[in-house]
Design goal:
The protein is an alpha+beta fold and about 210 residues long. The chain has nine helices and four strands. About 50% of the residues lie in helices and about 15% in strands. It has a four-stranded antiparallel β-sheet with strand order 1-2-4-3, with helices on both faces. Helix 2 crosses helix 7 and helix 5 packs antiparallel against helix 6.
């Protein structure tokens, strides 16, 4: 496959992907779900800190329990899987884990000392609100991989913010540092895609 063919395939993915509101209930194979996880897992993040946790919910009974705190949107229960993208505000711990992982993968502690200190200096003055805001922005990068990855693998998705994060945290029994921030439902759509409506390119990209 040539580079131009790969480019066109990706262009087709982002143009054809859409937020489906109705799934047919068909289950996505475990093989495809694992491939999607790999795509999400390779998402970039600032400093490579990866401040996120993704809760995977396949159980129909649990999704039905979450539906009322998701504005009873049908995607929650008609989908095959529900992914809860959570921001991890314990940035300090993630930096420590990343340092250990880098050393385990062959990095010399003295060689990465400056880089690790730069991350610690970045995290130290942040307020709890700033940590949450930063972690959520990073989490949305991973979400982008999820929706485009789903289309690439042959199924559909719907990114969602219409839910009660506090109630999700309670129902899923999440620790305080793991904050539900966005949802992605996965499955096979029953809808016919409509043409995308986007503002003109010249209004979006501003040259200076």
């Amino acid at each position: 496959m040539t580079s131009s063919e790969i480019h066109m395939n990706f262009e087709q993915i982002v143009k054809e992907r859409f937020a489906t509101k109705s799934f047919d209930g068909k289950e996505i194979s475990e093989e495809k779900i694992k491939k999607l996880f790999e795509i999400i897992h390779n998402a970039p993040s600032s400093f490579n800190i990866q401040p996120w946790k993704i809760i995977v919910i396949k159980d129909k009974a649990l999704r039905e329990k979450l539906a009322p705190v998701s504005w009873n949107q049908p995607q929650i229960t008609s989908s095959s899987h529900l992914l809860v993208f959570c921001a991890d505000t314990n940035i300090k711990e993630n930096i420590e884990r990343l340092e250990k992982l880098m050393i385990k993968n062959g990095a010399q502690a003295d060689q990465i000392k400056g880089y690790i200190q730069m991350m610690r200096d970045f995290e130290k003055p942040m307020t709890p609100e700033q940590k949450l805001s930063w972690a959520q922005r990073q989490t949305y990068i991973a979400l982008g991989n999820a929706v485009n990855g789903a289309k690439y693998l042959g199924f559909d998705s719907c990114p969602m913010e219409g839910f009660n994060p506090q109630e999700y945290a309670k129902i899923l029994n999440l620790p305080a540092n793991i904050v539900p921030s966005a949802l992605v439902t996965l499955g096979y759509t029953t809808e016919k895609p409509r043409p995308k409506v986007r503002f003109p390119v010249e209004e979006v990209f501003m040259e200076k």
